[in-house]
């Protein structure tokens, strides 16, 4: 059997490795238009902000590894069209030479693309996006210019907040804009984001929330950013207002979600029996929403690639859904969340309650210690946990995995009240904040 995989980043790589490692004799062809594969975008802000030495270690595999495993791989080759009836993929390399590959099964792993603000001045120099490795390089180069003193970041989601920190670490004046009244509004409730916002301000980032960019102004290069509330002199702009699915190749043939992502079943199969879709170009099932949705994360890309790989290889494997678990660490302030915030539940018309608690991570007699804030969100009628948020300068990140499982398994808030949680002063308190939050639930 021959499988063609379009897109060889996290999702395509996971699908290819699953097939090559578990199904000997299977024929795998990978096609990607980029020069590189496996770039961990999560490292861009660390590298641009000089928290790590360089970008070299942000790649975890390469073309040669796939060749050694027996795959055919075409880099710098763009798929231009797919004949879904004849099962042929047409592609073109950078020299303009056209080729084609037939398939028995096709895996679409074409990922996502940044949403481009469609406002006047969008073709000026000094405007950036942050998706590809090459875009990270351009941002890094621009930040190295002496005449770049003020950087505007539009979108205070994950990319925006991370790159704002990086720009500040590079000594720039940083202005951070978002349409919402706080940073990270898609992931946390205001009771949590207010702490991140204070943290950003305390570290010298100028916040402009509830403000919409309307125009970029400049001669050749951007010089001003105009919003609905003011005009700002800027030397560089980084746009980070979210991703949308890159489904150009199959959107006329396959069923799609409201944002254009390929609709997939729990085997990652699309509406065409021979075609699978994985990662950021596909939908995903949310256990919190109990519905199909879209969540662009590397973690989901890898898992969905594994699922498609096995199903294509001949082992039936069902996706178990996701919670969209995520985390961020900015100037030493750590936040993690899973499932739905109260605001997200409200938007999805799920009637929820929540329980909050705040305490020191460890007993008071331990010197290296800091407060932890927790919120657990649960559905009023069923009492199932639908989400959790934690924040602290302590590393509280691993707690969120348990809440992810709780959401996945529809555990009720009442089940959490007497859960056996160990105590050791080096790590936590006998009256654990998770227990205390659960006990306080209405
Ligand atoms: C700056 C940044 C930081 C991030 N941080 C995190 C994080 O900390 N944690 C996390 O979980 N996620 C993070 N993400 C999100 C994560 O990177 C994406 O969810 C992930 O890359 C999705 O993987 P993918 O393989 O589905 O798609 P993509 O990474 O978008 O890859 C798609 C591939 O398809 C190729 N392709 C597309 N069209 C064609 C075509 N026509 N022909 C040939 N090839 C094609 C592209 O060249 C690309 O290589 C971050 C993203 C960015 C940009
Ligand atoms: N730490 C992590 O896990 C991590 C890090 C980076 C990226 N990612 C993922 O990559 C994807 C893309 O990240 P992202 O930061 O671009 O998206 P995002 O969805 O996290 O944030 C986009 C932000 O832009 C704002 N926005 C939207 N339209 C706007 C407009 N017109 N003007 C001003 N603000 C506007 C939104 O309110 C939101 O806060 C996301 O799925 C994200 O979860 C994850």
Automatic annotation (TrEMBL):
Signal peptide: none annotated. It comes from the Bacteria. Its EC number is 1.6.3.4. It holds the Pfam family Pyr_redox_2. Residues 332-428 form the Pyridine nucleotide-disulphide oxidoreductase dimerisation domain. It catalyses: 2 NADH + O2 + 2 H(+) = 2 NAD(+) + 2 H2O. It is an enzyme of class 1 (oxidoreductase). GO terms for molecular function: oxidoreductase activity. Keywords: FAD, Flavoprotein, NAD, Oxidation, Oxidoreductase, Redox-active center. Its cofactor is FAD. Residues 2-305 form the FAD/NAD(P)-binding domain. PANTHER family: NAD(P)H SULFUR OXIDOREDUCTASE (COA-DEPENDENT), PYRIDINE NUCLEOTIDE-DISULFIDE OXIDOREDUCTASE DOMAIN-CONTAINING. Belongs to the class-III pyridine nucleotide-disulfide oxidoreductase family. This is NADH oxidase. It comes from Pseudolactococcus raffinolactis.
């Amino acid at each position: 059997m021959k499988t063609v995989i379009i897109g060889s980043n996290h999702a395509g790589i996971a699908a290819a490795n699953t097939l090559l490692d578990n199904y000997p004799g299977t024929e795998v062809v990978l096609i990607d238009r980029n020069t590189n594969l496996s770039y961990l975008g999560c490292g861009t802000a660390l590298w641009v902000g000089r928290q790590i030495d360089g970008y070299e270690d942000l790649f975890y595999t390469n073309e040669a590894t796939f060749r050694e495993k027996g795959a055919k791989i075409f880099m710098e080759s763009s798929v231009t069209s797919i004949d879904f009836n004849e099962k042929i993929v047409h592609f073109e390399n950078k020299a303009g030479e056209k080729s084609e590959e037939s398939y028995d099964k096709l895996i679409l792993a074409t990922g996502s693309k940044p949403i481009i603000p469609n406002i006047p001045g969008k073709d000026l120099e000094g405007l950036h996006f942050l998706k590809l490795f090459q875009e990270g390089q351009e941002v890094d180069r621009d930040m190295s210019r002496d005449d770049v003193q003020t950087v505007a970041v539009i979108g205070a989601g994950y990319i925006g907040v991370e790159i704002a920190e990086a720009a500040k670490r590079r000594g720039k004046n940083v202005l951070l804009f978002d349409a919402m009244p706080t940073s990270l509004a898609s992931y946390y409730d205001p009771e949590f984001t207010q702490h991140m916002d204070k943290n950003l301000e305390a570290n010298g980032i100028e916040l402009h929330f509830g403000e919409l960019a309307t125009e970029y102004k400049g001669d050749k290069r951007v010089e001003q950013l105009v919003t609905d509330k003011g005009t700002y002199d800027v030397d560089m702009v980084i746009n980070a207002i979210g991703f949308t699915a890159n489904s150009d190749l199959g959107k006329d043939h396959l069923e799609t979600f409201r944002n254009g992502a390929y609709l997939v079943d729990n085997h990652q199969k699309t509406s065409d029996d021979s075609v699978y879709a994985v990662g950021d170009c596909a939908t995903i099932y949310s256990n919190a929403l109990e519905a199909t949705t879209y969540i662009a994360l590397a973690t989901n890309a890898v898992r969905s690639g594994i699922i498609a790989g096995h199903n294509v290889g001949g082992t039936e494997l069902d996706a178990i859904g996701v919670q969209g678990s995520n985390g961020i660490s900015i100037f030493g302030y750590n936040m993690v969340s899973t499932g739905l915030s109260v605001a997200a539940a409200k938007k999805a018309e799920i009637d929820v309650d929540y329980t909050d608690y705040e305490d020191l991570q460890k007993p008071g007699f331990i010197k290296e210690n800091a407060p932890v804030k927790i919120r657990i969100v649960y559905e009023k009628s069923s009492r199932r946990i639908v989400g959790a948020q934690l924040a602290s300068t302590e590393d509280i990140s691993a707690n969120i995995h348990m809440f992810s499982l709780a959401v996945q398994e529809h555990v009720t808030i009442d089940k959490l009240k007497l859960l056996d949680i160990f105590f050791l002063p080096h790590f936590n308190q006998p009256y654990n904040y998770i227990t205390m939050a659960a006990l306080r639930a209405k």
